[in-house]
Design brief:
Elements (H helix, E strand, L loop, with lengths): L1 H13 L13 H18 L15 H12 L7 H11 L6 H14 L5 H14 L19 H16 L6 H13 L17 H18 L5 E3 L2 E3 L8 H12 L17 H14 L4 E2 L2 E2 H12 L17 H15 L3 E7 L12 H13 L4 E6 L5 H4 L4 E6 L7 H12 L3 E6 L4 H14 L8 E2 L22 E5 L2 E7 L3 H7 L10 H22 L30 E4 L10 H13 L8 E4 L10 E6 L7 H12 L3 E6 L4 H14 L5 E3 L19 E7 L8 E7 L4 E5 L2 E7 L4 H5 L8 E2 L1 H15 L3
Parallel strand pairs: 5-6, 5-7, 7-8, 8-11, 12-13, 12-14, 14-15, 15-20
Antiparallel strand pairs: 1-2, 3-4, 9-10, 10-11, 16-19, 17-18, 17-21, 19-20
């Protein structure tokens, strides 16, 4: 007993305090706190009239940059400080390329409809000041100077945002810009500040972004429309200039300096990082070369921030102004951490995985508009990705024409991804019968269990109306695998990605009516799938910035490992197979406990039951235990064990059955609400204060209305069977398991993921008390 009490004291003392060695990866809290401090600094620096310290040659430049940084960092457009800044910017007439470009991006980000006349005015000014003759044709300057790649970059960025906001940009403007950027690229793939100069990281980022933007405005799509006919899977050409630029950045990548700046690597360092973010996001790459650009960049920025004031300050021209450096740092941190909505799986040894290269760019853009939040997407290479890499995206898209080829190891990663809360979305490209047969075989390999089979989704499935109602004559067939708490695999044998390819956010309404209806319906169906899979809550990219699992250092905790068993029963004991493992993993990462992560499922009558201090039970169906199971469970609890249970997706049939069985097992004790004043709900034992928590409730106002999730702040609802001063049974009638799996879909009522984990951790800590 004394040793156990020492273990408890160590547990409480070290909860959440596992030390990081020097250079350890940062976590999400540090990133968020750095952004908050940077925002606070810029707000303090704003003058009473609404501006920042603009230099005389660039009136409004720093004001526009600071405002853009604050907007991207989450400060709303109706914040009084933002409104004052925009009022200042509206009074500034176009004179300098930098200022006009930044001013335009602010208008497009804050209130594009209200400021649309000013956006179109600035577009006209930028078009008029574009150089049209000579070797710098297609570039921009200050103006009245030679064209340079820095001014030209900002002009292209502004025109891109303006066109996305609905402004008209002449095709000739894009054509001249595209020719310029390709013409001035160095042979090694880099770009310098001006044509002929050696390449730098900041300017190569500018060149890559400009190539991506201008190509999207000018190049043909991977699908086409002729009359009422849609042609999919048109052969696309690899963009050699883009690949050379990305290759240079990968070979020369650094977050410590601006590559190519010779002995002046600290010069324009924040400007370079701002460019790195743009390249990574626009090319849908998590890695540049072998570098996780956001994780590495965020770590170095967090460590370089002034801890007292919240500012960043660089060296050399402009960046020695902390308002400029802080704005650029905030743009990297805030835009780079945007939630990943979906990832396209690079599979096989050919390009069969990517017949429609702009499909997810367009689908993500439409989802952003509908959800009113910034999102991004990525490409993930299944050959080299870890399960943790896959989990950065809540949805993986697998597409192709041929049968998808995955190795045994890759299949294992996919199944592990699904077990940990991931979602597979598959689409047959180019009407590929081979893909159809191959994907069905893949599903059979991923789920050898008989109960998990690919079946047509019924008309009542919530995926059909999760976000948008779709006319019956525009629906596509969907198949799914019911696994865990929801449908975790969805497959469409029709080529949805072809239709997404055609649905550019700034497309002109040129399609014939029937074609436009097909395209719109396919996009709506894609968004419905994403809504169902994510609950409109994709995680920020830095949510995966957990410290690498490390055991606690020394002490008594080295002597024991905590294990929890999952009980077999007929009420759906496998409804959320990853819930327990995720809870144990969280206990290790958050509390520093030595944990056995094995998902050990045992029969209630198994004598191994008494090897555990805590057992876990969940389900979603009505059930009944045998007399032998009741007797064994009663003995386990009476000897000091703890039974922790929850109703998956707040299933009433399971909850009623569980309560009935507890009455039969413990006729002299009552399953009753645990008062919120009990130490179980406090942080006194080393856990969390969970006296109030967030609980999700599905809401639909009408048959054709999208399903919404209402989140309420409530007292936790836990019931328990008490033995003297100890609760031997703890039961939640509201879902915990699906939330722990990250499988909680829109129709699944229960606690949020964060609070479900906190409830589980508090129960674990409570069960360890003497």
């Amino acid at each position: 007993m004394a040793n156990r009490r020492i273990l408890l004291l160590l547990l409480v003392a070290t909860a959440g305090k596992v030390p990081q060695p020097a250079g350890a990866a940062i976590d999400q809290r540090e990133v968020v706190r750095a952004i908050e401090r940077g925002v606070a600094y810029l707000k303090r620096e704003q003058s009473p009239r609404g501006s920042w310290a603009d230099s005389t040659p660039y009136p409004g430049g720093v004001t526009a940059l600071s405002t853009l940084a604050l907007l991207n960092a989450g400060v709303p457009a109706d914040d009084p400080l933002i409104e004052k800044a925009i009022t200042v910017l509206r009074r500034i007439q176009p004179k300098k390329t930098y200022t006009v470009a930044l001013q335009t991006m602010v208008f497009c980000t804050a209130r594009p409809k209200q400021d649309f006349p000013l956006i179109q005015r600035n577009v006209k000014w930028l078009e008029q000041t574009q150089i049209r003759d000579g070797e710098r044709s297609g570039a921009w300057s200050y103006p009245r100077a030679e064209g340079d790649n820095s001014n030209s970059q900002f002009a292209v960025l502004a025109l891109n945002e303006a066109q996305r906001a609905g402004a008209v940009v002449n095709r000739a403007t894009w054509r001249r810009a595209a020719h310029y950027w390709r013409r001035v690229q160095n042979l090694d793939g880099s770009w310098g500040y001006q044509p002929g100069r050696s390449g730098t990281g900041s300017m190569t980022c500018a060149g890559v972004a400009a190539i991506v933007i201008t190509s999207s405005k000018l190049s043909g799509s991977d699908a086409s429309v002729t009359g009422q006919q849609i042609e999919c899977c048109r052969p696309g050409e690899t963009d050699a200039a883009l690949q050379r630029g990305l290759g240079w950045l990968g070979r020369n990548f650094s977050v410590q300096r601006n590559p190519g700046m010779s002995g002046f690597g600290a010069t324009w360092w924040y400007y370079y990082l701002y460019g790195v973010e743009r390249v990574g996001r626009m090319t849908a790459r998590r890695f540049l070369g072998r570098h996780d650009w956001y994780r590495e960049g965020a770590a170095v920025l967090v460590r370089n921030q002034d801890p007292l004031s919240g500012l960043w300050k660089g060296k050399g021209h402009a960046e020695d102004d902390p308002q400029i450096a802080t704005s650029l740092a905030l743009l990297f941190l805030s835009k780079g951490r945007r939630p990943v909505l979906i990832a396209k799986v690079h599979h096989g040894q050919t390009g069969d995985w990517n017949h429609h290269r702009h499909d997810l760019t367009n689908l993500t853009a439409h989802t952003e508009r509908l959800w009113k939040r910034d999102l991004t997407w990525q490409v993930v290479d299944i050959h080299s990705a870890t399960v943790e890499d896959l989990l950065q995206a809540p949805v993986l898209l697998i597409s192709g024409r041929d049968a998808p080829q995955f190795s045994r190891t890759e299949k294992g990663r996919l199944r592990d991804y699904i077990d940990r809360g991931g979602f597979l979305f598959a689409v047959a490209s180019c009407h590929g019968d081979a893909f159809d047969r191959g994907f069905r075989a893949l599903v059979a390999d991923l789920f050898p269990e008989q109960e998990y089979q690919l079946r047509p989704l019924p008309p009542a499935h919530p995926i059909w109306h999760a976000e948008t109602h779709i006319d019956a004559d525009q629906l596509h067939p969907l198949w799914g695998v019911e696994y865990g708490c929801r449908t975790s695999v969805v497959y469409c044998p029709d080529d949805l990605s072809c239709l997404w390819e055609l649905d550019r956010i700034d497309r002109e309404p040129a399609w014939p009516r029937g074609v436009a209806q097909r395209i719109d319906a396919a996009t709506a169906l894609g968004i419905n799938v994403l809504t169902y899979a994510t609950g409109r809550e994709p995680r920020y990219k830095d949510a995966g910035f957990a410290i690498s699992p490390r055991g606690p250092q020394g002490g008594a905790m080295q002597r024991g490992t905590i294990a929890i068993a999952r009980l077999q029963h007929p009420g759906g004991c496998n409804a959320a197979p990853g819930a327990l493992v995720n809870l144990l993993r969280t206990a290790h990462n958050k509390l520093g406990l030595r944990i056995n992560l094995q998902d050990k499922q045992i029969a209630i009558t198994d004598d191994q039951l008494f090897d555990y201090h805590l057992v876990f039970m969940h389900g979603r169906y009505a059930f009944q235990l045998t007399p032998a199971e009741r007797k064994q469970l009663a003995l386990f609890v009476q000897r000091g064990g703890t039974l922790f249970a929850d109703a998956v997706c707040s299933s009433n049939p399971f909850a009623q059955s569980f309560r009935r069985e507890m009455r039969r097992i413990f006729p002299h004790q009552q399953l009753a609400p645990i008062p919120v004043s009990h130490p179980l709900f406090s942080a006194k034992l080393g856990g969390y204060d969970i006296t109030t928590v967030e609980r999700r409730e599905p809401v639909r106002t009408g048959e054709a209305e999208p399903l919404r999730m209402k989140v309420r702040r409530v007292e936790p609802d836990l019931e328990g069977v008490r033995f003297g001063e100890r609760y031997g049974v703890i039961f939640s009638p509201f879902d915990i398991s699906c939330a722990l799996e990250r499988h909680a879909s829109l129709e699944c009522a229960g606690y949020t993921q964060q609070d479900a984990a906190r409830i589980g951790l508090n129960v674990l800590i409570y069960s360890l008390q003497p």
